Amino acid sequence: MRSPDVRSRLTAKFFRRLGFAFGAWAAITLARADDISPLGRKPHWDRLERYQETITRADFARLLDTVYATRGYADYIQVGDDSARILEDRASGKTFELRFAGTGPRKVPRQYWRDIDQLGPSKKPLSGLNVALDPGHIGGRWATMEERWFRVGDKAPVEEGELTWQVAAILARKLRALGADVSLVRTHGRPATPKRPDDFRELAKTILARSGVPDPPETYDGPEDENKQKTVQWQSELLFYRQSEIRYRARRVNEVLQPDVVLCLHFNAEDWGDPKSPTLTDHNHFHVLVNGSYLPDELAHDDVRYEMIRRLLSRTYEEELPLADSMAGTFARETKLPPYEYTTDNVVKVGTSGYVYARNLLATRLYRCPVIYFEPYVMNSNEAFARIEAGDYDGTREINGVQRQSIFREYAQAVADGLAEYCRQTR
Ligand SMILES: [Zn+2]
Predict the structure, then answer these.
(1) How far away, in angstroms, is 291 Cα from ligand 1 center?
(2) 309, 200 in Cβ contact below 8 A?
(3) What span, in angstroms and rounded, lies between the C-alpha atoms of 259 and 257?
(4) What is the distance between the alpha carbons of residues 338 and 357, in angstroms, rounded to a whole number?
(5) 136 CA to middle of ligand 1, Å?
(6) How far is CA 388 from the centre of its chain?
(7) Ligand 1 centre distance from Cα of residue 372 (Å)
């Protein structure tokens, strides 16, 4: 990801400038079309009936206030003494009533994932643990479209989707050696979604028309074209690799793999400008994301609001946070990377390591199990770039005057050590 996610920030800015989801005009004319997020599905609120009386008022309010909706939710959720009223759909104004638990909460219904502390002791720390690895992005021929590609001079291009694949391949071997069952959420260089950008041209036109671009240009002229966001091409590409791709990965995670935890593997970056003449920086850092920090205009979508409540009620956070905090601590100790400090207001810092933030990403929201989302190394930092160019190798090599293992092995080892350490302590 380009941090602090330059693309979504630009998109938000673009829509804001056009009055999308903001202001009286937008609220009146867009209410219907905008009720469901792009490619989202109409939620089935009755499926939350099974969570009745499983959570106390205090826990519900605390999770909203400190993790999930830290920037306000008063337009959508009213927390009463004995129950909460949650807006089901904006069109009808219908609400869902969630009754709080009294003195003895009912047991939280079964999920497909299991708490690590329920797995019991074993010789190998990860025995019986079902881990899914999600190497971020697609890479290969899609890397430039994803804007996860840059090239310095005549050196090999840097593609995030390829780097994350290399880490996942090494990490899978390490985790299996520690006893885990490991699966991968995607295959190499191929999208998980069967859709392609052309499948989304009509939807892209609708989205653009709604945001005040009724007659959009078809194509844009390279990554530096400042009007690219207003083109059918750019919008349909975004629907393909951002929305559809993650939604298909989520189906595989939730319906086929059903892991106990998903580890999302990314490399971070700072804005590099022209990908064929990128800016390199001295900043290098690391952070981890878990799900949370839904913004009020995200909660305006019926499906997003439902997904947040479902996640809160499934109590994923109680497993996710200690695991993320512990793994982040190990990762930081082994790589010596400093914590990234966000300058945007779309996150909230959680836990005690100083490295973990809650943020509402599609993957952390839709994968219905604990998700630990790694964002180490700034790919276009002088240090990380030199290590990426050095490729994968045995032992250590001198890079900028320091003996280093390959960046891929260091990444994989630090993740494996963190998971093993947590499991040894918890089981
Ligand atoms: Zn990424």
Answers:
(1) 16
(2) no
(3) 6
(4) 14
(5) 5
(6) 23
(7) 13
CATH superfamily of 6-44+108-426: Zn-dependent exopeptidases (3.40.630.40)
d(CA 364, CA 361): 5
* Ligand 1 centroid to residue 189 C-alpha, Å: 15
CA distances in angstroms from 409 to 133, 176, 281, 413, listed in the order given: 15, 15, 23, 6
Residue 371 alpha carbon to ligand 1 centre in Å: 15
pLDDT digits (tens, 9 = 90+) for 196-248: 999 999 999 999 999 999 999 999 998 889 999 999 999 999 999 999 999 99
114 Cα: distance to centroid of ligand 1 (angstroms): 27
Go through 229-244 and write b for each residue having 16 or more CB atoms within 10 A of its CB, e for each that does not: bbbbbbbbbbbbbbbb
What is the pTM (predicted TM-score) of this model?
0.92
Containing 373, the helix (H) or strand (E) segment is strand 371-376
266 CA → ligand 1 middle, Å: 4
What's the CA-to-centroid distance between 1 and ligand 1, angstroms? 3
CA of 28 relative to ligand 1 center, distance in Å: 35
Q: Where are the domains of the chain?
A: 6-44+108-426
